[in-house]
Every structure is written in C-alpha cells, then in structure tokens.
Automatic annotation (TrEMBL):
Gene3D superfamilies: Endonuclease/exonuclease/phosphatase. One of its GO terms (biological process) is larval heart development. This is Endonuclease/exonuclease/phosphatase domain-containing protein. Residues 528-553 are annotated as: Disordered. It comes from the Eukaryota. PANTHER family: REVERSE TRANSCRIPTASE DOMAIN-CONTAINING PROTEIN, TRANSCRIPTASE, PUTATIVE-RELATED-RELATED. It holds the Pfam family Exo_endo_phos_2. GO terms for molecular function: catalytic activity. GO terms for cellular component: extracellular matrix. It comes from Mythimna separata (Oriental armyworm). Residues 182-301 form the Endonuclease/exonuclease/phosphatase domain.
Length: 553
C-alpha cells in the first residue's frame, strides 16, 4: 500500500488573478506622433490598497469565450488549477490572518483546515476572504472547514455527513471529471469512537461512489493514526492506524504523504505523519510538505495534479480608454476631414481594406481619447508587502533547515528548532501588523474624502465589492450533472419553470374566447347579427338596456 509520489517543482500548478491593478494615469496623445505610457509602481501604491477585479472588457474569460474552436469543457479545464492544500490549523481564530495571507499569496483551488476549535458562530463573514467561499463544520474542540476559490465548481454533500464526527464532503466538477473530497479530523478519542468514524467513512464513501460511479475519491485530514508498516516514521501501530489501513484497503485508496507532518513541541518527541491524503488515483497527484501556517504545529500538505494546465495568468499590458475625458468634437472633425477614399479602396482585397479602416479608427481614438497601457500584474497583494515577504521567506528557510537537520540527525537540531519557532512567531506578528496597517490606511483614506463625494463612494463601493459574490453558483440538473455557464443555468430555469407551469386540464376542452369588437365595422356587424342597433348609453330602453349598451361599449 505504500506509494511514494516524488515532488517535482516544475509540476506545480499556479493560479493568479489579475485583480488589484493600479489606477492608470490618463494620457492625451497629440497627432501625429504616437506616445507610449508606462505605469510606475510609485503611482500605483495608493490605489493598490484595494484589490479590485479586472474590468469585464479585459477579462481573460472573454477571450476564452471568443475562441470557438475549443469546447467549453476544455476551456474550463484550462482555467482551473489543481492545487489542494491541507493542514491542521489548531485554532482558526488565532491563525486567521495567516490563513488569509496564504489564500492571498498561494491562491489554492481548495484549502482544507482541520481542528478549527471554534463553535459555529451566527455570522461567519469575518472568517471569509474575497475570492473564496467558506464551507464549514465547526465544533468546539474539533471541526473542519474548506476555502474554495470562486472559480471552482463544487457542491457540498451534506447527506453524507454525520453530526457526531468532524467531516466535510464536497463534490468538485472540473468540467471533464468529478472528484469527491472528504476532509476528516479524528480527535484523540477512544477505540469505539474511532471504529464508528471508520464505519461512517466506509458507508459514506460507498454511497458517494454509488451516486457518482466515475468520480475520484480523496480522503484527507488529520487522522491521528500510527502504523508501523504504513505510516512514517514506521515505529508503532495503534488502533486508529489499523482501522485506517483497513479502510484504505477496502476502498482501494493509496496514502501519498510520506513524511512527518507534525512539528513536535518537545525535542525528545518524534515527528509523526498524522495528516494523510488517500486517493483512488495516486498517479494523478504529486505531494509535498511545507512549513506550517501561523502558529500551527502541523505542516502544510500541498497536492498538485500532474495533469495541471499551464499558467493562464495574463501577461504583458492592456490598454484602458478614458471615454469620459475624450474630445468627441475633435474626433468627429478628424473622421469628417480624413481622406477615406484612398483608404477604403486601397486594395482589391476586402480584408485589407477593412484592416486599413480599422487602423484609421484606432489612430483617431489614440489622438482624441486619453488612454493608458497598464501592466497586467500576476498577483494582487493589497497588504502583503516586502516586509511580509522577507518574514515568510525566513520562516520557510528556518523550517527547511530544521527539517534537513532532523532527517540527517545533526547535533544542532535543537538550536535549529528554536530558530524556526522564533521565525514563525516573528512572521505571524509581521503579518498581523501589516494587515492592521492596511485596514488603517483604508479607513484614513475614506475619512479624508468629503462625505457623499464621488471619491468617497468610489472607494467605499470598491471595498464593498471585495466581499460580494454576485455570480450564481452551479445548479444541479435532474440527471445529476451541474450547469456551469449562464446559458445552461437559464435553460435549466426555463425547463423547471415550464414543468411547474403546466395546468392539469383533466381532459376538459379549453375555453373559447368571446368575440372582441376592435373596429366600428366589427361593432356594426355585431349589432346587425343581434337585429338591433345601439344608441348612446343614456337612450337605452330602461335601465337594463343602458347597462347592456355600456358593457358592450
């Protein structure tokens, strides 16, 4: 059952958003010279306090939709990364800033956290982070949660969860295949509770595979298990280790984590592999172990699919036009006075003429409409500065030095362990201070603007938009598949509305609409068939005739 998946750095899948682009400076070009523009980092520092999404006209998704040669499934597979991270956070409250920092910098597709150690609050919005959706199963001394990136299509499988255990089941649909993730946290409980947990996982996995027979199965989390022949460091076996190995054999799962994941608090303690990742498709993933997040005593486990697509991050620059500041009168005069005949009939090829006309239109826009060429950055880091970068790098370096010394059984393991603890605490303080300074800068900037001014509301809406998710989540079709695109969701809504709107006639004939007199001729013909002609409502014979004429009129 032992499977060692080698980690190759070149197989890492990266995903970054192009949000947080700085406010471009307007530029007025004067004919006939072309002028270039380059954004300077100093000019973007103030505007980069808020991570804003890219304008819709420049979104890379629009480019993908215009490419009709690729199917939608391939487009979706290309846009999704396959980075799934796992760790025992040992208290989400105390490490919330570090978790948000990890989401901001790494942008994993899924981040699973175990041992959150919080009660389920009435409002979990303070735990959320822009660009990610939080799914949770919180418990006071246990609990698990998941941060899913907004472009990931997933569905929570609550019917497979049991309130007695800290589990979270999720179905992820990449467009080409389905993956079932089960995040588990097993506390240091007795043998009876452990047997009940393994039985629940076995029954839930069977139900999930029966419902989705083609889906892959991935069990991951902190199992607190030891097995002499199966789990690192291969020294002892307990009841949890035996139960977990039986479960892996029954479900045909392979364990991919082959190193110590818990950082011991005492130097004499042994570093064990407690965080496991078991899957039915082991050849698909490559697993690595990194330094812990925040003050956690468990390492971060990163799994990357070896079939990950290339990095779809936007490169180069994009041009932003300032239409509100355009000189429309000058543009009209330019187009009116331009010699169009040589341009429109410059060649017998219609495509060449169209390109020539397009060049003239673009030239006129560059003359009379201010524009900016903005560099498309790889990542938006509104609060993660150079100081945080240095502190994070020092923490990773200290962890790597301690890990290598522990593996080699060097004499200075204790000193390097203390150096790692100092670096981890220092990194946590730096991240917390940087986040606080970022929030303070936003508050001071809002306070400096006049209340109700355009600048005030622009910044306020930008802040508010970071915590909104306007997109409609994927919808479940009757056949079990998921509707991803707007067209598929609209068609699904239409079909459901049509099904729910049908009337049961019970075999009765539909009602016949009465004759409607739309013109004077129709009204005359109607009275001719009745054998009398109407008069004004007041001249009817008696009260009944007046009411009848009034109704007809």
């Amino acid at each position: 059952m032992r499977h060692r998946a080698g980690w190759r750095p070149d197989e890492r899948a990266r995903w970054t958003f192009s949000g947080g682009l700085g406010r471009p400076r307007s530029l007025q070009a004067s004919p006939p010279m072309m002028s270039s523009f380059q954004c300077e980092p100093e000019g973007l520092a103030a505007w980069n306090l808020i991570s804003l999404p890219s304008p819709l006209t420049h979104s890379p998704k629009i480019k993908m939709k215009r490419n009709k040669k690729k199917s939608f499934a391939k487009q979706r597979q290309h846009s999704l990364s396959h980075k799934v991270h796992l760790t025992n956070i040992r208290g989400l409250h105390s490490n919330l800033v570090a978790v948000h920092h990890h989401l901001e910098t790494e942008k994993p597709a899924l981040l699973f956290l175990s041992e959150t150690q919080i009660r389920c609050p009435s409002d979990v919005s303070y735990l959320s982070y822009p660009g990610f959706t939080l799914e949770h199963n919180f418990k006071p001394r246990a609990g698990v949660c998941m941060y899913a990136r907004d472009d990931i299509c997933y569905r929570r499988l609550r019917n497979l969860e049991d309130s007695r255990f800290s589990t979270l089941w999720t179905l992820v649909d990449t467009g080409l295949d389905k993956i079932i993730y089960a995040c588990v946290y097993r506390s240091h409980s007795g043998d009876q509770e452990t047997s009940g947990l393994t039985q629940h996982l076995s029954e839930a996995a069977d139900a999930a595979q029966q419902r989705y027979p083609t889906a892959q199965l991935v069990l991951l989390g902190d199992f607190n298990a030891h097995h002499q022949e199966w789990l690192f460091p291969y020294q002892c076996t307990d009841h949890a280790g035996r139960e977990m190995r039986k479960l892996a054999i029954a479900l045909d799962l392979t364990q991919l984590v082959q190193g110590a994941t818990r950082v011991p608090d005492v130097d004499t303690h042994t570093a064990n592999c407690l965080d496991l990742l078991l899957t039915t498709d082991p050849d698909r993933y490559s697993v690595s172990i990194c330094s812990p997040i925040g003050s956690s005593d468990h390492c971060l486990v990163k799994s990357v699919s070896v079939y990950s697509p290339p990095d779809p991050s936007p490169r180069g620059t994009r041009r932003v036009w300032r239409y509100k500041s355009a000189d429309w009168d000058g543009l009209r005069s330019f187009f009116a006075c331009y010699p169009w005949q040589p341009t429109c009939f410059s060649s017998e090829d219609a495509s060449s003429c169209a390109d020539a006309v397009a060049d003239v239109l673009r030239r006129g826009m560059e003359y009379y409409i201010p524009f900016s060429d903005v560099k498309m950055s790889d990542q938006a880091r509104p609060w993660f500065g150079a100081e945080c970068d240095r502190a994070d790098a020092l923490k990773h370096a200290a962890y790597r030095a301690w890990s290598d010394a522990r593996i080699c059984k060097a004499s200075d393991v204790a000193q390097k362990k203390k150096a790692f603890n100092r670096a981890a605490k220092s990194c946590k303080k730096v991240l917390r201070r940087s986040r606080f300074d970022h929030i303070s800068r936003i508050g001071n900037k809002l306070a400096s603007y006049p209340a109700g001014s355009k600048a005030f509301w622009s910044l306020a809406k930008s802040v508010e938009s970071n915590f909104c998710r306007p997109s409609l989540p994927p919808l479940l079709r009757p056949d079990g598949s998921l509707a991803h695109t707007a067209e598929e969701k609209a068609n699904l809504f239409a079909s459901l509305f049509a099904e729910s709107s049908r009337l049961d006639s019970g075999g009765a004939r539909p009602p016949v609409s009465p004759d409607v007199c739309e013109t004077i001729q129709d009204l005359s013909a109607y009275w001719s068939r009745r054998g009398n002609a109407p008069g004004p409502p007041s001249s009817g014979k008696g009260e009944g005739g007046a009411k009848q004429n009034e109704n007809i009129y």
